[in-house]
Amino acid sequence: MTFPYYHSSLSSTLRAADLGCAAHFRGIKYGIIPRRFANPEPLADYPAELDCTTYGPRCPQTQVDVTYLLRIPPSISIAPEPEDEFGCLNLDVMVPKTALAEGRRLPVVVWIHGGSQAVTFGSAASGVCDPTAIVNDSIRLGKPLIFVSVQYRLNIFAFGGESNEQNLALKDQLLALKWVQHHISALNGDPENVTLAGESAGAVYCHALLVMKAPAKQAILSSGSLYLSPPQPAERASLLRDSVKRQLEELGGFDLRSASAQLLVDALTRTGIQSWFLQTEPSLDRWWEETGISKSVLLSHVQDESVIWRNGILAAGTDSIINAFSLAEDDSDELKNMYQIYSNRSSAATTGALDFINDYRFVLPIIKMACLWRDHGKRVFQSLIDEANPWQPSSGAHHAVDLLLLFGGFDMSASPGAEEIGQKMRERWIKFISGEDPWPSESSGVFGPHGRFEELDDVQMRTRRRGSHLMKLDGMDSVRTDRVFSALAAGRVSLSN
């Protein structure tokens, strides 16, 4: 069934998918790409009638099975998503139908999906980040909200062909936020009450957008920040770009501009590049000191973030791990002792390397960001996600498991605890989006294990994580610990873990 709605600022009748309590306006273009690696431009005009019942295309990309990391059973099928280099700037808007009828201004969530800045991991179209459960629960709780999911450029298409063509994904996302500012009020959304949210690479982008003073009242950063993937200088960007150029040359003398989108994807596949990064620019200078104009932030991480490096660390071997930790120089011995990095304990060294990545790039950054935001007089809420994967509990609370729990897009009845935690997460997230405290700000909200929700103080939180390790890491020279992380992690991340 379709739901027709006249959108006054677009001067267009939008035909949405009718989901009962909500209308889902899918595949609305928010911008155009005039040519490859060009800055995005707003769409000048919309047709008198617009079919918004089907999802729009995503950016061309190498193929990644999103069910692998998430342990989604093969019996649950994920529909293939169309791809279009020049048509990928589109968004989906889910709106409670009562809001459209009543004219009530609702808070708005703008969701930036993850995927290592390389692929689409967590779109509404895939079902992984289908916001239906969140919107329906918001209606049930009497706190209705609007949910916007954004598609944007990825991998080399976002990276740019030259040093002056960079960070195109951020520019796409800023344009999407401008679209929300200009047009969400016609769907009875409040442009002054926007929560910017993302997971993993999506959280990296959200952090960057906050630093750039994007128009968002508050933010939710899940399993990621600029500490995870800091902006890199032009020299390093050139190395990554050159690896793609070499593959294009071998494929038939093509270059970044003349190659078809499919040839670029073929070249990307041949390079083996699994993740990308933002490039330095003035608006991101001293990003670690900035909080932007937002007033509140919710920061969360799962228990086992570093699982996406597991296969890479295993393949590296004990000698490589020891050599990486030796780069800490004067801090090397202490680091090795902290994380059990010993030549005669290969299993312990592998586990220790993953623990270090988890602590240094996920948990410690949340502590630093929470302190910074509080120092700026802003509201801060911290969350730990410790509920295990619903289909394979032995995989634990791994990276991206929070997407399964929060969005509840698949049948998780095999794990009543996971279903219970998903419900509790949605209720607390909805409270935050509505401007309320999801729990006391001096506590951390902990979801799981076994379906339990707890509020823990700092001392209790440190028992859930490696509290003494985090304190010692924070006191070490970050230049040295950055070297350790780079030697361990570079080129070894994969969503197929």
UniProtKB/TrEMBL annotation:
Domain Carboxylesterase type B: 23-443
GO molecular function per UniProt: hydrolase activity
Keyword Hydrolase appears in the UniProt entry: yes
Keyword annotations of the record: Hydrolase
InterPro entries: AB_hydrolase_fold, CarbesteraseB, Type-B_Carboxylest/Lipase
Name used for this protein in its record: Alpha/Beta hydrolase protein
Source species: Dactylonectria macrodidyma
Lineage, highest ranks first: Eukaryota, Fungi, Dikarya, Ascomycota, Pezizomycotina
